[in-house]
């Protein structure tokens, strides 16, 4: 009996349908029903401003919170669905996490579906709330309905933590063995997540995984290949175990290629390209470094490469994976040529992405298949004219990789044309590449000098800091080219001082060889008539030009001073110019001028000897060009001089800081490479190349132990100055080692023994980078025990190129007078993917031949 209070007290109501009618009119209901998701989306889309949208969201969130507090089970599913939409828009929705768990625990499929979706979006393993789901997921994995089981598998495979994976791995393994293909494919993907979280559970899935490849359903086949790939990548034992499946995988791939039209799996005329790509990736892993597996898949790879249609992007995707597989396994040479020809066809495609992919792949393979890539040189060079900057950069890198002694003239012509017209961000890398290629493959010294001068004229302000001293060294060593070079440089800077490196080289050459310029002794081209005053006019205009930097003015003033011994009629004018700059506001220039004035006044009898022509510089046979010493702002290459060490104790070098950085008390400091000495500075750098050389190998305040003989003059510091080679050209019988291999960075040591001192081991390090991005600001540091002495020479670069397209080399000399076993601690610092990386490692596996 139901009563309703009215004006005359309680009245009896005789029928239940009437109460339903009253409820439907809202007389009894406490709050209105929330709006549907579709209406919320429509309302939010009508918002004209961000503020209006936020106001709508906040109002709806308040209503949803109220509904959650009321424990309203009727509309919980609708409210969570709306909350997920707000989460997708970027608004906070964390207050709905527990409501998702309540929906998962519901018996209704619609509630479970929204609950599991909310858990995948709003929860992750960093929040303890997700552990409350474990029991619900376990119950649903054993549910009688396959769709509920599928929801549980998807959620576990998406956000399951390592604890959840351990607890539920058994249920996943059971579902892998079920006959239901819908559940088997979801269980296989869930198993991939379990293996990633808990690798030691891999063996649990081994029996079930073998049977998955016998499945006819393409979905199950696809997920089984993904599972196999994951297991092979994570375990070498699994990789060796699954290599026997290569014939079965080849058979599946062949059936896909040869099968007729199947509307269920056809994509642009190709049967299930997604499964083909996955199988090709798995074959690539299985065939790597294995002759038998590679031999078994050679035929099918050739068949895929020749029969796949290239008119659609789907076919190009399969061909690209085929090429990667061919290049990664031990394939036949003809097959590798076929793969490179496919990439060459990609370069002619109108799609920019395909062209970029082709250039990147060719860059990876150019080291191993150089001749095959050379056939597509003209197409690669044409890509330098592409409007897309990423394609242009890849084409430039690949073009430099293709340069050799046979095509150096043609390639340099194209690259110099590219340097003229390219964007400013390309000029520095292009100029550096041209310098390196010209130094390595120059057909003649005149061609080399002309090429470097062309680069300085075109992009002088973008070249590296060492371009000026390197060119000066090249010119100095080319004695027969002095007259030609100074005439070319003189004409190059007439009226144009914008390219400062070019002006610096020109000023240095005019100072050294100004007499050849005035005498007109050039034989390579028609000599020009220049007077001494005209030469001085040029140098004085450099001094007063607003475009000249302080370093350039230093070059010009020094050149004018040198001309006082080359010219005869303008010495008084030179004295006047030098005296004027004795009061310059530029301290560097003023100091030079004062010192040069003193030469004229007090030491005029020594001036000719001090300013005589620079001798020919001998290249150091170790790593990189001749040592360059920077003095007074002017970079002049000077030959290393042999100087005996002073008898007194040496100042303590800042290199001893390496002890603290690399750890350990038995480590000897590094000996810097520069020959000059100066007092130690508290602010000095770790390996100050211009700092002092501590020839004793230990700080002066801490004498070596009695058991270690005092070495006053390590012979290896002077080896490079003798007439015989520094070390054996061919290191016979000393195997190389891999000192470090981590995060794509690989450091290899090769060994040589000094000819002049058997106690010296020369180690050449080679750093390579297999990742997709360059490693910049690379610094290699090393330390050895105090019974050894170590010297680090300058590295060839500070950038380790990506995709193993190049290496950084650096030479280490180790003096081991007691023939003890080598031990070394290394420190690596570099920037990669925007992050600063640092790592320490110990090297204890030196071959006995390197120290005995």
Describe the structure.
β15 (824-832) and β16 (835-843) form a beta hairpin. Mean pLDDT is 80; it is low at 1-29 and 621-731. The protein starts with a strand and ends in a 9-residue tail after the last strand. It is 50% helix and 11% strand. It is built from 34 helices and 16 strands. Strands 8-13-14-11-10-9 form a six-stranded mixed β-sheet, with no helix packed on it. With 852 residues, it is of the alpha+beta class. One of its GO terms (molecular function) is kinesin binding. Residues 732-847 form the GAE domain. InterPro entries: Adaptor_Complx_Large_Subunit, AP1_complex_gsu, ARM-like, ARM-type_fold, Clathrin/coatomer_adapt-like_N, Clathrin_a/b/g-adaptin_app_Ig, Clathrin_app_Ig-like_sf, GAE_dom.
């Amino acid at each position: 009996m139901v009563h309703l209070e009215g004006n005359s007290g309680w009245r009896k109501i005789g029928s239940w349908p009437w109460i339903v009618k009253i409820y439907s009119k809202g007389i009894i209901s406490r709050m209105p029903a929330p709006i549907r998701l579709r209406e919320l989306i429509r309302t939010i889309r009508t918002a004209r401003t961000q503020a209006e949208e936020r106001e709508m969201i906040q109002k709806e969130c308040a209503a949803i919170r109220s509904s959650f507090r009321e424990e309203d089970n009727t509309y919980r599913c609708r409210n969570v669905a709306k909350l997920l939409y707000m989460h997708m828009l970027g608004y906070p929705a964390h207050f709905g996490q527990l409501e998702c768990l309540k929906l998962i625990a519901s018996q209704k499929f619609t509630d479970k579906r929204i609950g599991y979706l909310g858990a995948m979006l709003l929860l992750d393993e960093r929040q303890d709330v997700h552990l409350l789901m474990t029991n619900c997921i376990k119950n649903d994995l054993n549910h009688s309905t396959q769709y509920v089981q599928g929801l549980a598998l998807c959620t576990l495979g998406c956000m399951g933590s390592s604890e959840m994976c351990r607890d539920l791995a058994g249920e996943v393994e059971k579902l892998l063995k079920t006959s239901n293909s819908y559940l088997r494919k979801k269980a296989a993907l869930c198993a991939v997540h379990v293996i990633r979280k808990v690798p030691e559970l891999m063996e649990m899935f081994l029996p079930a995984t073998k049977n998955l490849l016998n499945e006819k359903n393409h979905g199950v086949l696809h997920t089984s290949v993904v599972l196999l790939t994951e297991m092979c990548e994570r375990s070498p034992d699994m990789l060796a175990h699954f290599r026997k499946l290569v014939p079965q995988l080849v058979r599946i791939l062949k059936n896909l290629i040869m099968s007729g039209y199947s509307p269920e799996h056809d994509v642009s005329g190709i049967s299930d390209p997604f499964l083909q790509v996955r199988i090709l990736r798995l074959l690539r892993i299985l065939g790597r470094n294995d002759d038998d597996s590679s031999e078994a898949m050679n035929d099918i790879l050739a068949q895929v490469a020749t029969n796949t249609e290239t008119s659609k992007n789907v076919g190009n995707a399969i061909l690209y994976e085929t090429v990667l597989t061919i290049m990664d396994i031990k394939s036949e040479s003809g097959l590798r040529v076929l793969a490179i020809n496919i990439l060459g066809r990609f370069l002619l495609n109108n799609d920019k992405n395909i062209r970029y992919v082709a250039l990147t792949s060719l860059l990876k393979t150019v080291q191993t298949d150089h001749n095959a890539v050379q056939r597509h040189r003209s197409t690669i060079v044409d890509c330098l004219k592409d409007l897309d900057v990423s394609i242009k950069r890849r084409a430039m890198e690949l073009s430099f990789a293709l340069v050799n002694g046979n095509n150096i003239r043609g390639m340099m012509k194209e690259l110099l044309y590219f340097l003229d017209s390219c964007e400013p961000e390309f000029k520095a890398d292009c100029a550096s590449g041209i310098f390196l290629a010209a130094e390595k493959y120059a057909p003649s010294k005149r061609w080399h000098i002309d090429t470097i001068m062309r680069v300085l004229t075109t992009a002088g302000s973008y070249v590296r800091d060492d371009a000026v001293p390197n060119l000066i060294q090249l010119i100095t060593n080319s004695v027969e080219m002095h007259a030609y070079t100074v005439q070319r440089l003189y004409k190059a800077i007439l009226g144009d001082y914008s390219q400062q490196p070019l002006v610096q080289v020109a000023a240095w050459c005019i100072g050294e060889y100004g007499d050849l310029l005035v005498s007109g002794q050039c034989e390579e081209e028609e000599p020009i008539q220049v007077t001494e005053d005209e030469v001085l006019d040029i140098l004085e205009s450099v001094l007063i030009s607003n475009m000249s930097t302080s370093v350039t003015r230093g070059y010009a003033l020094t050149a004018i001073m040198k001309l006082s011994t080359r010219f005869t009629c303008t010495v008084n004018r030179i004295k006047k110019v030098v005296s004027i700059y004795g009061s310059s506001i530029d301290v560097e220039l003023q100091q030079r001028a004062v010192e040069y004035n003193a030469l004229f006044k007090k030491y005029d009898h020594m001036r000719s000897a001090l300013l005589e022509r620079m001798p020919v510089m001998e290249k150091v046979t170790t790593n990189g060009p001749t040592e360059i010493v920077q003095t007074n702002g002017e970079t002049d290459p000077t030959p290393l001089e042999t100087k005996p060490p002073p008898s007194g104790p040496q100042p303590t070098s800042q290199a001893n800081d390496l002890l603290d950085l690399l750890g350990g008390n038995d480590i000897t400091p590094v000996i810097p490479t520069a020959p000059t000495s100066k007092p130690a500075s508290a602010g000095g750098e770790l390996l100050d190349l211009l700092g002092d050389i501590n020839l004793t190998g230990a700080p002066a305040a801490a004498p070596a132990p009695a058991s270690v003989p005092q070495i006053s003059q390590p012979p290896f510091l002077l080896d490079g100055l003798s007439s015989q080679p520094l070390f054996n050209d061919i290191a016979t019988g000393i195997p190389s080692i891999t000192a470090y291999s981590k995060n794509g960075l690989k450091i290899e040591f090769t060994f040589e023994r000094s000819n002049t001192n058997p106690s010296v081991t020369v180690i050449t390090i080679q750093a390579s980078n297999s990742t997709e991005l360059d490693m910049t600001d690379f610094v290699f540091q090393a330390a050895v025990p105090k019974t050894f002495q170590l010297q680090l020479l300058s590295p060839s670069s500070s950038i380790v190129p990506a995709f193993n397209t190049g290496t950084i080399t650096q030479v280490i000399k180790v003096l081991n007078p007691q023939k003890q076993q080598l031990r070394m601690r290394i420190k690596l610092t570099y920037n990669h993917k925007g992050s600063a990386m640092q790592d320490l490692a110990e090297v204890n596996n030196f071959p006995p031949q390197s120290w005995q």
